[in-house]
Amino acid sequence: MSIKTENDGRMFPITDQSQTIMDCLTESARRSKITIRCQTLITSIQEQECAPGGFKLVLDSGEHLAADRLIFATGSNPQGWEWARSLGHTIEPPVPSLFTFTVSDPRLDGLSGVAVPRAVLRLEQSGITQEGALLVTHWGLSGPVVLKLSAWGARVLHDAGYQAQLSVNWLPEFRGGELLQRLHDLRERQKLKKAPGDFSFGLPRRLWVRLAAKSGVLANKRWTEVSNKVLEKLADELQAGIYSISGKSAFKEEFVTCGGVRLDEVDFRTMESKRCPHLYFAGEVLDIDGVTGGFNFQSAWTTGWIAGRSAAGTPVQAA
Fold this sequence. Notes:
By secondary structure, the chain is an alpha+beta fold. The chain has helices at residues 18-31, 78-86, 144-152, 154-159, 178-189, 205-215, 228-240, 295-311, and strands at 3-5, 11-13, 42-47, 55-59, 64-67, 70-72, 91-97, 99-103, 115-123, 129-136, 140-142, 164-169, 241-250, 256-261, 266-267, 272-273, 279-281. It folds into 3 domains: 37-96 and 254-311, FAD/NAD(P)-binding domain, CATH 3.50.50; 98-172 and 242-250, Elongation Factor Tu (Ef-tu), domain 3, CATH 2.40.30; 178-240. The chain has 8 helices and 17 strands. The longest helix has 17 residues, at 295-311. It is elongated, with a radius of gyration of 26 Å. The two termini are 23 Å apart.
């Protein structure tokens, strides 16, 4: 499988298709002669007292399977956490991570599809900040920077009922009073021309016009009629505009869960449980969640590789 690296470090198959990853994994399983049983429901998992470290799996068909090693790779399925809890583990409460923001704001109306390659977002109540590409959607805001912010702020947003104030810096390349000075220069150069004009500091023109109008830079005025106070409002709007988050929208292909089996109950050298011998964990069943860009896949594959080798009795070499 050939992969590519985006400018911000995110990694994807060159096909941009999740099926490529699925095919790679299923082909690897086939080559390793692994038996995969589909549509097989496990109703309970029992630790056998007569054989410490052994397990009995009861299937809905009534069949019993014996296992001397067991790996939980159940993702964010609540049943996996229930099994882990029954075997002595503590579960950190699961909450959503990697989602988009529902924002209803007249400044964004009709701008669906407008993208800004670099913006800085901050959750006002927590101060959590992220930087990256931002996309306006018909329901609010999306893009890598929103997904990253939702990951770092997953519990904060959950606890707030997904009602929060979001500060948006559309032009983070300008620092201090640099943007305001550039606006003064723009007004001087364009003073006899109609505002807001064609110059937009690299922002999509529709967004620039909307934010300028919100600040009082009206299309029926010339730049010379724009006051210093209005320029200050425009600079603030461009770099510290406040938008109200009123909910979340699950990102269909990259939604993950924050929470799961507590990490201090697992030996990360082997991925073996510290509570139940010969029980191993891999992937999202653990309280691990990463930002978008393949990091959750990598976590699942790495922990799965360590757990598999450890369960098979093959030493895992330290890097």
